[in-house]
Amino acid sequence: MIILGIDPGYAIVGYGAIEYDKGRFRVLGYGAITTAAGEPLPQRLKVIYDDMKTLLEHFKPDAVSVEELFFNTNVTTGIAVGHARGVILLSLAEGGYPFFEYTPLQVKQAVVGYGRAEKKQVMEMTKTMLGLKKIPRPDDAADALAIAVCHAHTASSLLNT
After folding, report:
1. Plot region of 113 (φ>0 → left; ψ -120 to 50 → alpha; else → beta)
2. Nearest residue to 150 via CA among 63, 49, 61
3. Under DSSP, is residue 35 helix (H, G, I), strand (E, B) or coil?
């Protein structure tokens, strides 16, 4: 199964594609969609939409896992990220890609085994599970890979029940 993990944002959208087969992972690629600071939000959303379509065409995932929104204090940033997430979900719906949503707590639980794990612990465990020499950069790409791993574990446990 090919899984594309997405860490939504409007300045940086992290992505990570993995292949998961019989408990084994293979990294297919990772990186980030970036938008220019100072650009109007509609143009930034168009960049995200166009780049998402390119990623979907390239990886042809069987499933896409997207992190649910979580923000503490900055409502303005949360709204902009919400717009970006909407554009991401639109690109998935247009292509008919099944998508699954996970909270940060669910991702931590699936990757580290502890829902309150620190970000560094999640990144280290993701690196180890995927057999990478170093933690992927930017952080958003590492987060996206963790989101993909979360779906692999969740989907495989559902298939085994």
Report:
1. left
2. 63
3. coil
